Each structure stands twice: as structure tokens, then as C-alpha cells.
Amino acid sequence: MRRDMTTVRSRHLGSALARVLRDSGQLAQDVAERMGWSASQFSRLLHGRARIAPADVATMLALCGVSSGGLRSTLLELAGDLMSPTWLQEYGERLPVEPAAVSELEESAARIVCVDGSAVPALLQAPGYMHAVLRFSPVVPADEIASRADAVVTRQRVLARIVRPPVVEAFVGAWVLSPNGFGKAVLAEQVEHLKQLSVEPTVRIRIVPEASPVCAPFQLMRFTEVAPVVYVEHLNSTLLTQRSSTIVGYERIVARLDERALSIDESRGFLAETCIALRTAI
Questions:
Q1: Could you list the residue range(s) of the whole structural domain that residue 79 is in?
Q2: Rounded to two decimals, what is the model's pTM?
């Protein structure tokens, strides 16, 4: 498989197998030899750049002490359709605490465009706002709020990464920052948080003053060596796709938002004024 032929499935499979190998305490060289793989082949596998049959995945997992469970089932399913450019996961009533693969993609992305017409994108949420969003959800039980918030905070660390942090451009609707059921104190904290982030060299916040195309929250992620990926999050499912014909539609949404949004400097001014107004009204 060439470098530009990696898929969201093969990359996640490779990362997951690397974690299994690490957790087992075994040496990659030993496992590769027992499977009849060369060191270079095995390295390509762990980086999502080599095909592997489900039977070989099962063998590797067994060598690492994983012979049953949900992880095994998921990885065998991935290996069964490794070259598909899309990966739809349905979870029943609600998303898992940590949806598969999105944090790994964020870690390796060179650029992330965040779009959410109903809330502040997760990567830019302040603690109070984050908890309010989770409490508002009818499908998130109270005893999962803390763990879900911790998972989002972990994802947000990518913004503060010292080495090659991604450029993050977020389109935030002005209506999202107007007084709502979350309360003015929560919104004031969130707007202040956005204002502080807006001066970071790798964070570009664009305020959209009027309602724009309605769609599910998504992230368009670009990488240095592989095809772009779109991550779409619904109530109880996620979609990862790098199908070029699908991505074109999301790129058009971003282009429309770019036309309608305030400039970066204008957005900073909007955030400063909104913050003052909210603090005064508390």
C-alpha cells in the first residue's frame, strides 16, 4: 500500500495494534518473526500502510493475549474491509465516552476546520460550557458527565502541543454565544476562553453573524502525507470519510462560511464586546 493509499480504517487498525503490542510488553520484532513478517512490513502495518487479513489480526491479538472482547471484534471488522474510505460507527443510544479514532486523527492533522451550528466546537469549549452541554443532552447519564468532559479536555491538549500543533480554524455562530439556557456566567466564561484562544498563532476563530448552512457538526482535517478526512458526529453515530466526492460537499460548506464569517480581527472584536456585555449583565 502506497503512503497516499492509507485509509481511516487502516490507520486506526495500525494504531490499535501498536497499543495492544505495547500493553502486552512484547517486542515488535519477536511478534513479527512469529507471524512471518519482516521488520519493514510490520512497521508499515503499525503505521496503517500495509494490508493484513482478519486471520492475521486474530493471530497477532492472540500472541498479545487478546482472544476475545469488543476490541478484538472491532479490529477484525476493520481488517475485513480495510481499504474502504469510509467508516460509519453506530453505538445504540449514545456515543461512547471516547469515539474511536478522532483523537488520533487530531493528533496527526496539520489543519483542522471545525464547524458546529448549534454549539461551540468541542476543541474550543471552556469547562463550564462543556459540562452544560453534557448536562443538556437527554442521552448522557449524570454519572458519565465527568468522564466525557475529561475525554474532551484530553483532545483539547492538541492545541497546546509544542511541536507542530495543528492550525485550527473554527466557525462559531454568533447566535451560539447569545444568552440561552446555559446562563450568562457560563457564556461569559466561554466567550472569554474563545477570546484568549483567538490570539494563539495556530487558532483562527471566525464568527458567523447570521444563520448559515445547517448540518451536523463536523471537522475537516488535512494532513501532510495522506488524504483529507471528514469527521461527522451525530447523536449516536460517527462517520469518518476520506472519499473525495463526499469531502467536496463539506469543502463547499466551509467556503460558504468563509464568505459570510467576520474576519479574524473582526471576530476578536466581537468576542471582546460580547464578553464585556455578558460580564456586565451578570
A1: 3-84
A2: 0.89
